[in-house]
Each structure stands twice: as C-alpha cells, then as structure tokens.
Amino acid sequence: MNREKFIAELQARLSGMPDEERRAAIQYYExxxxxxxxxxxADVIRELGSPEKVAESIKADYYGTQFxxxxxxxKDYMEKYTRGARTDSAGSAGTGFGGEGSxxxxxxxxxxxxxxxxxxxxxxxxxxxxxxxxLIAIVLWPLTLGIGIAALGIVAAVIGFFAxxxxxxxxxxxxxxxxxGVGVALLVIPPAAFIVIGIGILLFVCGLAATVGTVKxxxxxxxxxxRGFVNLCRRPLYGKAV
Length: 242
Prior knowledge:
This protein is mostly helical. 71% of the residues lie in helices and 0% in strands. Helix 1 (3-13) runs antiparallel to helix 2 (19-36), helix 1 packs parallel to helix 4 and helix 6 (126-139) crosses helix 7 (141-185).
C-alpha cells in the first residue's frame, strides 16, 4: 500500500460522514504524509495502521462512539495488513516507526504519534489558524476594516444591481398591463385602441421575459457569490476551496 491507495481507501471508508468533516480529515492526513516526506511514506503507513482503523477512529471521534483499538491490533489482523504493506513497499518493514503495529495504537485523530517524536504535527490545527487570523486582523485593523467595508460595498452593489434588474423587468411588465388597459378604454376609437393595446401586450411580453431571465440570473449569481464567500473563508483553514 502506498500513499495514494491509503488516502483513497480512507476517503471511501469515510463516505458516510458529512462532507466538511470528511474533507477536513482527508486534508489532515494528506498534510501529514506531505510533512513526513516521500522517503518516509512507508514508515508513516506503518505508523498509522490500516485505513480501516484510521477511519473507524475518526468516525468514533466524530459520532462520540467507542473505538476499540484491540480489534485492529490482534495478531491475525496485523499479519494480514502488514503483509500487504510489505508487498507495496518492500524493504521498509525494518525501518518503520515500530514493529508489527506496536505504534499503530498510538495514532489518534488530530494527534499523530510515532517513534520519531521530533516530527511536528501538520499545519492543520484550525483553532491556531483562526487565532492567528484574528491577531493579524487586530494588528492591521485599519486595513482590514477598510477592506471589509469595501468588500461589503461591492457585494451590496452587486446584489442591488441584480435586484434592480428584476424590479425594472417587473415594472416593464406592469407598464404593459396598464398600457393595454388604456387601450381597452380607447375602444371608442378602434384604430388608436388597437395600437395602444398592441404596445401594451408587447411591453407585457418583454417585461415577462425580462423578469424570468433576471430571476434566473439571480438564482445563479447569488448562490455563486455565497459559495465564493464560503470558499474564501475556508481557504485559510483548509488550504483549498471546496
């Protein structure tokens, strides 16, 4: 088993969890592998244990259920798993972080442990990131305040612009109704009445089409703006957009 297979299997075994929690967990272990380096990939896999064990540990931590590490450390299970690990990474068995899963039980979500105590935890502690972001915002508050006000102004302008398009389209449609009504009142003068009614119908149809189009445009633009804002807020915490 290599890094790609480990992450793929872990992701598959976490498929029942909420997307945000699953992505955070996968990102954590991807960072952990990256922090260890490609040359230590086999050691990290032996340290963590099987993807099944890691997945069960994560789910137990999230759902508040009991996690029994002994289920993943008995002799038959470890022999079966380490046999597959040795096949994919020959020669690394003797240089792992421990023998036959002795360190596998030391791995818990959010706190990787191993024989190499000098290895630092990957940069995935969201609380530390949030604290640093708050501190930076406080230190640079005049700049962040200005940026925040400008951003809110731009968002308000965009929202207002598309809302104005909808209101304008509805106004054209209502103007068509009023114009057609005036034409009906002018039926005593048939030629003029037909012209006014025709203009009213034309305005109503154009206004209706514009209303439908602008409403659909708002349905596309507003959620896209919300997703962009959410992704912008998540990027400092998870290192990528969702």
